[in-house]
Design brief:
elongated; 2 strands; single chain; two-stranded antiparallel sheet
Length: about 210
C-alpha cells in the first residue's frame, strides 16, 4: 500500500508541477508565443462554433462557442484571452467562414448574433483578468462564479444588439436571446469550471494580488 501511495503522490506532484510550469511559461512567454496561443484559441472557437443547433422560437443558435470563450480567459490570461476572441471576430468579418453555420462577413457581426460575439471578447477579458490577478479565483467555486459573470456579459451584449436589430423591447430580447440558453450554458459553465480548476495552479505564477 505504501508503494501505491508513493506512486500516487509522485503523480500528483508531477501534475501540480506541470500545470504550474505551463502557466508560468505562459505568463513569462514572448509576445509571439502569446500571439500564437491567442490565434490557436480563435481557431478552436471557430471549430466549436460549428457544433450548433437551432431552437424553433429564437433566431440565435445554441453553439459550442461559449465553452471555448470561458476557457480562453483561464488558459490565456488577462489580455490574450480577449485578444483570441477579437481575432475570432475580426477574421470572421474578413472572410474566414468560422462563425456558426460556417458563415463569415460583417453582416454577422451587425446581425442578430453579433452582440454575443462582442460579448465573447468582454467575457474572456473578465475571466482572464481575475484568473491572472487572484489565486483564490482558481478554485472550482471561484471559477464557476467567473464563468457565470462571463456568460452574463455575453447575454448582456447579445440581448442589447438583438433588441436593436429586431426592433423589440428588452423583455422580448431576453425571451428570445437569453432564457432559451440558460440551462445549457449553466451546464457548459459547470464543465468549464471543473476543467479550469483542474488546470489552473493553486500557487502564484505571476504578480497575483492575493499572494503578496
Amino acid at each position: 500500500m505504501s508503494e501505491i501511495g508513493n506512486e500516487l503522490k509522485n503523480v500528483f506532484v508531477k501534475y501540480e508541477s506541470a500545470r504550474y510550469n505551463f502557466f508560468k511559461w505562459r505568463f513569462e512567454s514572448t509576445f509571439v508565443n502569446k500571439l500564437m496561443l491567442a490565434i490557436g484559441f480563435a481557431c478552436l472557437t471557430g471549430v466549436v462554433a460549428q457544433l450548433r443547433f437551432y431552437l424553433p422560437y429564437t433566431p440565435v443558435p445554441v453553439t459550442g462557442q461559449v465553452f471555448a470563450v470561458l476557457l480562453s480567459g483561464v488558459i490565456l490570461g488577462k489580455w490574450y484571452g480577449g485578444l483570441s476572441q477579437f481575432f475570432y471576430a475580426a477574421l470572421g468579418v474578413l472572410g474566414v467562414p468560422w462563425f456558426a453555420d460556417g458563415k463569415a462577413g460583417i453582416e454577422i457581426l451587425t446581425g442578430v448574433t453579433g452582440g454575443y460575439i462582442v460579448g465573447f471578447i468582454i467575457a474572456s477579458l473578465i475571466i482572464g483578468w481575475f484568473t491572472d490577478s487572484y489565486v483564490k479565483s482558481r478554485s472550482f467555486a471561484g471559477m464557476f462564479s467567473l464563468m457565470l459573470i462571463g456568460i452574463a456579459a455575453v447575454y448582456l451584449f447579445g440581448a442589447i444588439q438583438l433588441a436593436l436589430v429586431l426592433g423589440v423591447n428588452a423583455q422580448k430580447a431576453i425571451e428570445l436571446g437569453v432564457l432559451p440558453f440558460i440551462a445549457v450554458d449553466l451546464y457548459k459553465a459547470l464543465i468549464a469550471s471543473a476543467i479550469a480548476a483542474a488546470v489552473a495552479p493553486g500557487a502564484a505564477y505571476g504578480n497575483e494580488v492575493d499572494s503578496r
